[in-house]
Amino acid sequence: MSEESQPINTEQSTPVAVKPRGPLRRLGCGLALALWFLLLLTPCALFYLATNGEIRLDHSDMPQPHSQPRLLISLINDVDNRGLQILRSTKTGAVDDTSVCVETAVAYLLWASSESNQDVIYCDCYSRADAAAAWTLEETRVSPCE
After folding, report:
1. Residue 58 CB-density burial (10 A; 0-12 exposed, 13-18 middle, 19+ buried)
2. Would you say residue 79 lies in a domain?
């Protein structure tokens, strides 16, 4: 059959309706894009950790914000232990402006270690006379805050 013998379709074709994208599909694409972007930034974070030794996010309203950061990821490079230390602290038991307890969880991700599980949770309780006074450490417990 040649091109000349093929019948020509003179009927108008009806357009096929395209289903619009739903909001959940757009949200899924946005989350996938955000996760891909975080994956691409991982080498930058690891390079920063290797050069500075730690990644730190401090609290702004803690009694001792530098010693109890919101998140601290630090590199451990000792003779016996090698790995990461991950420290997280949260404020608990804040009844008023004169007393507060801070719960700190320390976890270790070690790839070379001389000891077994070293993870710990401890609680520091602070008090002060009034809102303008400095915080004083009242007690430290090696257990979660109540």
Report:
1. middle
2. yes
The domain in which residue 113 lies consists of 54-141
Say if CB 85 and CB 72 are below 8 A apart. Answer: yes
Residue in 84, 91, 94 with CA at minimum distance from that of residue 65? 91
Q: Are 68 and 97 contained in the same domain? A: yes
For residues 135 and 82, state if they share a domain: yes
* Residue at 106 is within a domain: yes
| Residues 135 and 127: beta-carbon distance below 8 Å | yes
- Per-residue pLDDT tens for 46-98? 999 999 999 999 887 778 778 889 999 999 988 888 899 999 999 887 667 78
Question: Which residue blocks in 13-62 are alpha helix, DSSP H?
Answer: 23-52
Q: Say if residue 77 is in the same domain as residue 92.
A: yes
Domains contained in the chain, number? 2
Distance CA 50, CA 29 (A): 32
Sequence letter at residue 68: Q
Q: Contacts by 138-144 with C-beta closer than 8 Å and gap 24+? A: 138/99, 144/103
